[in-house]
Amino acid sequence: GISEDSRVEAPAFTDAIRMYRQSKEQYGTWDMLCGNETQVLSNLVMEELLPELRSTIGPRLKGKAPERQRTWIQVSDAVYRMVYELAKAQYDAAVARCEQERPQLESTIRTDMDQIITSKEHLASKIRAFVLPKAEVCVRNHVQPYISSILEALMTPTSQGFAEAREVFFKEVTDMNMNVVNEGGLEKLAEYMEKLSQLAFHPVKMQSCYEKMDQLKLEGLQQRFDVSSTSVFKQRAQIHMRQQMDDAVYTFETLLHQELGKLQGKDELCKSIQRILERVLKKFDYDSSTVRKKFFREALLQITIPFLLKKLAPTCKGELAKFQELIFEDFASFILVENTYEEVVLQSVMKDIMQAVKEAAVQRKHNLYRDSMVMHNSDPNLHLLGEGPPIDWSEEYSGQPEEPAAERRRRAKQVVSVIQDDEGALPYGAEALLQPGSPEARQPEQARPGVPPSPADAVQEIREALAQESLGDGARLEERLMNGTEGSGASEEGVLLPGGVTQQGPARDGDGVCCATAASPAPGAEIP
């Protein structure tokens, strides 16, 4: 998928995708913002191309529904591959152009930074004076009354999921501690720690955490704010759960590894594990609160901002062109009227969102800490832990060196956590051939990497390429469309098919979750 490591390219790419869709009156989340940059661009082109392709080819498909569906999959897959190749070439060329222009732009920024900032602030003040009164009225009438309802709908399943992750971690460590005491020795500890180090990426053991997000339902709010699907929020919360679990395991591993040299006998080992577990659980509670509050703020913005932009478009969008003259030509590459306009709209609702999350933390209904609470006097050593290489427990303590630890951890992280998405098992657009009328277009998602999409004439270029392809292959394609019996070829590995990736269900058997009988300390306990 799109890398989240970049703080510049990723948001620039997804902002470009979002603005392109908004220019076509498509607001809100978009389920097809998945895969790498080329795949996202291909999905964008296919979204525009499929209705035309469907109206041209759909009536010519023969046979029963399964045969028509199979033929449509073959056709849409072939078109997608062509689109993918063209999008990849154009995207790579755009990236190369950006890299060539980058040194000059960086030089200009360093030289004229003060003037650029002054010019941006002047533009923002003018746009704010024009837009803010309208935006505040819109927020007051159409958004503010529903913020608490949206927040409550998000908080309940998310907080339950994080609480379940905490409980799973506690049970795994407690069970390990009991087994080490009963079975004895550092060799057994090494064996159990190897398993624990992969806990966050174990789909069966993490499944109970992820399932909590299935309860997320925005119901009437989903229609009011034009949210096409809640899957983007479910998946983001599940990714946060996995990251928090991995952080907790890493902290526990590191602290235990530091203690082992000082321990004498199994009793001391048992007490040390219990003491470290309590420290890590306190840190988990604090970090979980911070992560969830950030997630709630981002989700509220992701729901309300597209709605506000759509509401304000009739009265504000057409007037933005007049603000372009306030930008010096030399700074036009750094200051965009559209971006500044969106910043003003964001400011209009941000205060209400921050206040709602703050009030939720004060109530402590979902074990959220207030922003003023800090961990510094509870366990300063936890803040000194740096990122280090994975600990090779088997080689250090069992005396049985196996594969390199880095390779083992890499493979463990390939065990993708089961993040459920019940929507859309058929390839992109296949449902429409089985039902009268095509579904409404879906809508945009959350920000990530790269470069703006292909220009508006890219769709026309695809059409021309399809026409040229059909000249050389017309007879064979006609035969395929008429009989609809040709078997579908296997897609090449690494290319996202038109329908995205087929969802894999979780394994219900196999590794069982260890169930310790002890109850975990209550989350939110006072931090010493």
TrEMBL record:
<comment type="similarity">
    <text>Belongs to the Niban family.</text>
</comment>
<dbReference type="Pfam" id="PF26086">
    <property type="entry name" value="Niban2"/>
</dbReference>
<dbReference type="InterPro" id="IPR026088">
    <property type="entry name" value="Niban-like"/>
</dbReference>
<dbReference type="InterPro" id="IPR059060">
    <property type="entry name" value="Niban_1/2/3_dom"/>
</dbReference>
<feature type="region of interest" description="Disordered">
    <location>
        <begin position="435"/>
        <end position="528"/>
    </location>
</feature>
<feature type="domain" description="Niban 1/2/3">
    <location>
        <begin position="138"/>
        <end position="306"/>
    </location>
</feature>
<protein>
    <submittedName>
        <fullName>NIBL1 protein</fullName>
    </submittedName>
</protein>
<feature type="region of interest" description="Disordered">
    <location>
        <begin position="385"/>
        <end position="414"/>
    </location>
</feature>
